[in-house]
Amino acid sequence: MNAVARISAAAGVERIGLRRAVVIGAGSMGGGIAAQLANAGIAVDLLDVPGSDPASRNDPAQKGVERQLKVGGFMTPAAAGIVRPGNIADDMPRLAEADWIVEAIVEEVGAKRALYRQIDAVRKKGSLVSSNTSTILREALLDGMPREFASDFVITHFFNPPRVMQLVEIVSGDENPAAIIGTARDYCETALGKTTVDCRDTPGFIANRIGCYALAVAAIEAIRQGVSVEEADAVMMALGAPRTGVFGVLDLIGLDLIPHVWGSLMSALPGADDLQNFDLPGTKLVQDLLAAGRLGRKSGEGFYRLTPQKTKQALDLATQDYRDARPFDLRQLPGDGKDLAALLESDERLGRYAWTVFANLVGYVDRIADDISLDRSDIDRAMILGYGWSQGPVALARRYDGARLAARFTAEGRALPARLLETAPVRAGRGTTAPALSIASLREQGKAVVENEAASLWDMGEGIACLQLHTKLNSFAPAVFSVLEASLEHVRSSFSGLVLGNDDPRAFSAGADLRAFLGMIERKDWVALDAYIEEGQDLFLRMKYAPFPVVAAAHGLALGGGCEFMLHCDAIVAHAELNAGLPETKVGIIPGWGGGTQLLRRAALNPSVPRGPAANAAAVFDVIWRAAVSTSALDARGLGMLVPADRIVMNRAHLLGAARSFAMELARNYVAPERASIAVAGRSGYLSLTNSVRASRNLGQISDADVAIAEALAGALTGGDTAAAHLDETQIMTLERKACVGLAKLPATAARIEHMLKTGKPLRN
Ligand code: NAI
């Protein structure tokens, strides 16, 4: 379907008063931050230096926009349309309009300070100015700047790429009023969807300070202790690092950045800082690799390389020769890589290595914790969200038996990490935003209203209930239906609205249980299959026409039956990163629980789709036939799954709260929708949809089985042979159900489902 022409501001953005932003510096970070602002529907200017060609002075900024289009910074290409490129020679007056000015230019203190003077001359009084610096102290950036500027200035340190990485470190100072720090947090959290942590103004802030130290210790100790690159990567993973471990991540960052990143951090830190004892840039091996141009992935070889035959090789840290990589399974580690105590206490080589890294890291973080953070819990949050660790160093220290740790630290003459082991960390900071509404917080308050092994109904407060699925990827096991049915009764009698949602980071719902579906096909139990589809349709329609509003809090995967569940709601509040779709054709069937019908309904509500039954059917056919899955909520809007009245939330943690608010708004004076009557395209619509499919068949591009799917889908979406101009939605749903059962009877379908279950990939037959 058409791309969205206009992107309205994401939910909550109006409340925080961010109407216009300017980003200066259109490189990978500035371009990415501007793209994320545009994704939230915020008008943004992206300025860079003027281009050398007087006819195209905005070229450098324009290139930044184009780069973001290429690397996926925009959630829909249309978002690029609300980034206005410009240059700092001609367009500084635009700053007068901006509520937020983000500086993301080269990492040079002089250049940044000069720019701040230009900014201060034109900016609106009270506007927030922030720098994305990764290494320069706030205090140094502000040297010579007036106090009024300093009071509106903080560091907002994003991670690369800004759309994907969850962390923003905020560094403020004594001159900042609490309100301006709150504004910075709101802009980063509500508008850009990030999680913020407060950092003190120290070199590397939190994540890079600890991350650089951990990598330096892990690399240098591996070299010293004769641990291979694969072994070191595995041990680091067991301690919480992502799959790339230590050497894999150095290859990814690029070895050429080691002198710059680690070097600048070391020179900014005092001589007594323990990082000085782990001098990564000064390590002979690193210097040899740099001299040989072995820079990691960007040069094709570093600690690992791929041979021309695409086999992986690893560097022997002692001889600097490459040899075939030895895949290292975490289960080869003492304690299977799961039992931390067994790993740390093992007297084997890798156990001793793990202990050295652990003890140094824990000791270091304990010494610097209060210098770098206002709240120790921010340390773990920063490492998890900024470095992709599965757990932070504070949690790591506490996972090991406290008495054993104390005994070994004492025996080795190390200072006890008393701060990290304290059970209740003291909050010294300014207080973060109120905890978000979540299923976990509801569980703390009490028991579910209705519950079985597959789903639970919770009281969210304010008269709204929340139905949470908790099967594998929250898919529709039969047990979900009984809770859904009971929930509809409960909400009718005791609540004024229902939200569908959960805390799962991956899925709203990945759909129907394919295995159950396949079982019925294998037993040729067509009656049961038909009844199973009908039961889903019936429940979804009862939910849709219930006398209370239902709001889906959709996020992550909303596929197949999960997407149909969402499409039957009165309204959808979607997290910006929504992957919604009806990919049933990939397993040889069409959506059975009314997905096509509800998309037809929504097409009529969507102004970006040309009206008229033939055009609507064609648009819906295209989405289902291609098995399109949205890459974002904005994309889902373009696909016709979301309509303009639905809302988009940038911050995943705000989703359930926003859905509850929406349900409360709808509950005032709520009347159930009228039964839907849908204009259908009939026989001529059917023929026009299937003609092009048959042409593809004649060209050999698709199989007979594909044609059967297309015909079944086209038949349902156009009303088939009907002569009526309108059909009741249940009539179309009956057509969908019959078509779905008909397809299930074809041998090609069972083969497709089996293949998908086995390989996770579609079968072409
Ligand atoms: P980059 O080199 O990709 O882009 C910098 C851009 O700023 C260039 O387009 C350049 O033309 C422009 N520029 C330079 N001087 C300017 C001026 N006076 N006025 C306007 N534009 C100017 O750099 P990148 O990587 O985007 O970094 C930008 C900032 O973000 C730096 O402070 C860096 O330390 C920080 N940072 C970088 C991260 C990364 O992974 N690349 C991560 C976090 C922070």
How would you characterize the overall build of this protein?
With 765 residues, the protein is an alpha/beta fold. It is 45% helix and 13% strand. The protein is built from 31 helices and 21 strands. It has an eight-stranded mixed β-sheet. Strands 12, 13, 14, 15, 16, 17, 18 and 19 form an eight-stranded mixed β-sheet that branches. The protein has a three-stranded antiparallel β-sheet with strand order 9-10-11. It is globular. The N terminus is likely disordered. The site of 1,4-dihydronicotinamide adenine dinucleotide has 24 residues, from helix 2, helix 4 and strand 6.
Short précis:
With 765 residues, the protein is an alpha/beta fold. Helices cover 45% and strands 13% of the residues.
Task: Name the features.
eight-stranded mixed β-sheet; 4 domains; binds 1,4-dihydronicotinamide adenine dinucleotide; 2-enoyl-CoA Hydratase, Chain A, domain 1; 765 residues; Rossmann fold; 45% helix; disordered N terminus; alpha/beta; N-(1-d-carboxylethyl)-l-norvaline Dehydrogenase, domain 2
